[in-house]
Amino acid sequence: MKNTMLQILAILVLMTYIPAVNAGLAGSTVLSISLANYDPNPAIAGNTVDVRIGIQNIGGTTTNDLMLEVVPGYPFELVPGENAIQDVGIVQEYQADSTQNIKVVKYTMQINKDAPAGSYELKVKYYEQGSTDVVQKSLYLDVKSKESAEVIHIDQTMLVPGKQSSLKFTINNVGNAPLRDLTFNWDNDEKVILPVGSDNTKYIKYIDIGNGTDLEYQVMADTNAVPGLYKLNLHLTYEDSTSNKTKTINTFAGVYVGGGTDFDVAFSDNANGQMSFSVANIGSNPANSVSVVIPDQPGWSVSGSNSVIIGNLNKGDYTVASFKLQSSINNMTSQNRAGRNNTNFQGRSMQRNSSSDTLLMQIAYTDTRGERSVVEKQVKLGIQNMGSADGQTAFQGRRGGVQQESIFSNYALYFIGIAVLVGIVVGHRKYRSRKLLDPDFKIIDLFKSRNK
After folding, report:
1. Which stretch of DSSP H or E encloses residue 50?
2. Could you tell me which residue, 10 or 23, shows the higher pLDDT?
3. Count of alpha carbons within 13 Å of 367, Cβ hemisphere only?
4. Percentage above 70 pLDDT, the chain
5. Contact predicate 274/387, CB 8 Å
6. Is the pTM of this model over 0.85?
7. Phi-psi region for residue 311, left (φ > 0), alpha (ψ -120 to 50) or beta?
8. Up-side HSE of residue 297: CA atoms within 13 Å toward CB?
9. By the 8 A CB rule, do 360 and 327 touch?
10. How far apart are CA 173 and CA 63, in angstroms?
11. Residue 381: which pLDDT band, with cuts at 50, 70 and 90?
């Protein structure tokens, strides 16, 4: 119905420009070619346009077998299946109060998506079939650049529950016209992911052709969120200058909540021939299939298996892993004997082996995405805690022997001093008792009496 009305309107327009048929045109064919209309008007780059060409015979002779040919140039091209040459057929001579001398031919053409806004030429030819007399005419169509925007990038694909993170959206102008007065907002139906420190709406004044802009939010996922993929609804609105209406783009993107976690490891106990360590999940996500491994490292050896499987650990949970460990500090025996008479031995031995009281441990686990990860931890051990299940008693015994030797060496002078003091007191008493009996008695006589 719309096309019929357009054709009638085109015919009426053409008729208003019909000159009066005079005697000079009565015996000739005079054709008038004009642009009846095109839809949409203006045409939009990247879209198709329907072009209607009006043909009017204002002469006094009918034309037979009229052919019309369109010669599309940039930015126009015929859509697949559309013929450039159309057989118009018979166009009768001009008669008053008649439309038999008017024909309308329609073409559908594609407009290049990169065409800038402007007025473009469309060439047409017309001739009678079999004739070499060809007439060419230029028609002009207004083309407007297409406005188009898209949200093409989100820089974060995973959020850790309870951790504030930056989430950046990139808005690109993929059309052929600048974009103005854009409004962007997003939401999550479950309310698991929310903006922090601002609302979810941002405004953009202008984006030039081929450019983009970044919109950054501070967001946080709920600490009690179930690990999984969550949908973000994205909404972008802007003014479409072609239709003078607000255009809205509604799309969505996925963000994963979950991921890895962290652990804390501490020495727990050294009993029953084994060293025990407490392993706690201190992160925001559960850890599955957790295993603790003592890797090969200088200063330590493991008797038996160097790995323990402890199962699953939810956030906040802990468990204990035990190993039979042997420290190289046990090899100090020969060094201790060589330095037995050195009163500073103990301080030097502690300094020399200070690096041997740190143990490297690895915690391997499966995160909420199903990926296997490894976390390394350095565990600090005191010298008193070091030793192996089968060598700890001997090591402590040796350390006790060294301490006994050290105690004796440190206190020998005190023992000698006390003995000398006791001897002096005893000798003085003997001297006083002898002096009372013999006023001429001298202290040297004590030693003479001993020699006798």
Report:
1. strand 48-57
2. 10
3. 20
4. 75
5. no
6. no
7. left
8. 19
9. no
10. 51
11. confident
